[in-house]
Amino acid sequence: MGGYTDIVTLLLERNVDINIYDWNGGTPLLYAVRGNHVKCVEALLAHGADLTEEADSGYTPMDLAMALGHKKVQQVIENHILKLFQNKGLE
Q: Which DSSP state fits 60?
């Protein structure tokens, strides 16, 4: 939520559940997108954060990035999706 990539990385190295919802209905990825924390979004996606998880409002991370006008985060998500499709095509 605060955009501290080093803390996110530390937690990811300890295999925390990055897709878990908190009491407020958000996941780490949703909070990173909401805060426009590009590096945190990149780290979470690299470690398998689920792009289909929705906030209580019904927004996916991409929906949220678009609604808030976070173009760089939107680009990071788009690039991640493209990589997923490319890797799927190699299988």
A: -
Residue 63: closest CA among 15, 53, 84: 53
φ, ψ of residue 59 in degrees (nearest 5): -80, 135
Per-residue pLDDT reduced to its tens digit, 9-59: 888 888 888 898 888 888 999 999 999 999 999 999 999 999 999 888 889
> For the range 57-63, what are the long-range contacts, defined as Cβ-Cβ under 8 Å and sequence gap of 24 or more?
59/30, 61/29, 61/30, 61/33
d(CA 23, CA 52): 19
- Signed CA dihedral, 9, 10, 14, 20: sign only: negative
